[in-house]
Amino acid sequence: MDTYIAVDVGGTQLRAACYPQGETKPLLQKRTSTFGKDGTPVDRLLDLIATVWPDHATVKSIGVAVPGPTNHKSGILYRAPNIPGWENLPLAQIVQSRFNTRTALGNDANMAAMGEWRFGSARGHQNVLYLTISTGIGAGVINDDRLVLGQNGLATELGHITVLPDGPLCGCGARGHLEALASGTAIARYAAEQLAQGVPSSLSITPNPSARDVGLAAEQGDPLALEAITRAGRYLGYAIADFLHAFNPSIVVLGGGVSQTGPLLIEPVRQAMTERVMSPEYLHGLAITTAALGDNAGLMGALALAESISK
Ligand SMILES: [Zn+2]
Questions:
Q1: How far does the centroid of ligand 1 lie from the alpha carbon of residue 311, in Å?
Q2: d(CA 173, ligand 1 centre) in Å
Q3: How close is the Cα of 157 to the center of ligand 1, in Å?
Q4: Does pTM top 0.85 for this prediction?
Q5: Per-residue DSSP letters for 95-128?
Q6: I want to staple 64 with a disulfide (CB 3.0 to 4.6 A). Which of 7, 39, 91, 223 is the partner?
Q7: Residue 194: how many CB atoms within 10 A of its CB?
Q8: How far apart are CA 286 and CA 270, in angstroms?
């Protein structure tokens, strides 16, 4: 039997699974914390892969989703903000030489996009725009059945396009990026600013309301919370209109915690996108949907990556 191993590296936990060829149900699946007494995160990752290695099957290739920008050609992880010391780390080479098996890396948002494309909401589409909206905003684009990577693997950082020059500060240090206006962090920050100005809201009894608190209050009809979600949705919609112009996808998939707000977010997205798109042809047959794979998106994307490099 031929198998693939998929690995999802996060800032708090590591997951690995072994899948028989052509199947999405793992033969073996394990997880552990990224940091612990026994070894460095790299040691822990290698040990975890060993625990899902099948006894009586061949592993054709290994795909690894990592929380930071990667170079797909060299297999180098440029940096992982949540894992101190992981800078210019040749992780694909480290895994490949330990297990003598072909290994590739992809950043987690790109891997989630691949997961949704191969196994989730975007199955059967050749042109996919995927955005994950949580603490930050990550993205992945499938163009004519290929993941868009760019020269050094750095393409489609769509959370960091300018939508409001001189707007709020982004996590990357620039101003007015989409992430600074429509991420979970941005929604929570906007709500906090409005509360500080005395805008009445059911959120005023919650200390430091999170984006999730804002989403729940919006579902209960709280006007400030609704405005915070709608505002984020509108900025997303403006940006998505630009992405339609750039990539002309047939489906837009929204993942991450903030997307669980559902129609409260998606309706303003749809409205703003429709207002800004330069011609209605971009909207013909265009689906907008939420992601299907949840926490498994990165792992399933790593499986799709492993399959793609063994061909
Ligand atoms: Zn930015």
A1: 36
A2: 6
A3: 9
A4: yes
A5: HHHHHTS-EEEEEHHHHHHHHHHHHSTTTT-SSE
A6: 7
A7: 18
A8: 11
Chain segment 255-299, per-residue pLDDT in tens: 999 999 999 999 999 999 999 999 999 999 999 999 999 999 999
Distance of CA 275 to CAs 95, 152, 183, 249, 282, Å?
Answer: 48, 34, 21, 17, 12
- Smallest CA-to-CA distance from 77 within 91, 57, 63, 56 is with 91
pLDDT at 161: 97
Residue 66 CA, ligand 1 centroid: distance in Å? 19
Q: Give the whole-angstrom CA distance, residue 4 versus residue 19.
A: 5
Specify the pLDDT at position 21.
Answer: 96
Torsions phi, psi for 59 (to 5 deg):
-95, 115
Give dist(CA 273, CA 180) in Å, integer: 19
Ligand 1 geometric centre to CA of 133 (Å): 13
Ligand 1 centre from 149 Cα, in Å? 18
